[in-house]
Design brief:
The chain contains two helices and five strands. The protein is of the alpha+beta class. A hairpin with a 7-residue loop joins β3 and β4.
Length: about 60
């Protein structure tokens, strides 16, 4: 089963992540380009938090 997450559900997990730049709503990882939340479709941390494969279509 794949969960389709709302922005609120995504932010719940992202705000706890050290890679998240809340001011710019971006995922900032070393050696990877900065991705705005709108361009992030999948994340292992979302999958782990919600217990299944997750997808965000912001």
């Amino acid at each position: 089963m794949v969960f389709q997450l709302s922005k609120e559900e995504v932010l719940k997990v992202c705000k706890e992540c050290s890679n998240f730049d809340e001011a710019n709503e971006s995922c900032v990882k070393i050696d990877e380009p900065v991705r705005t939340l709108k361009s992030v479709r999948i994340c292992k941390k979302w999958d782990d938090h919600y217990g299944s494969r997750c997808l965000f279509r912001g």
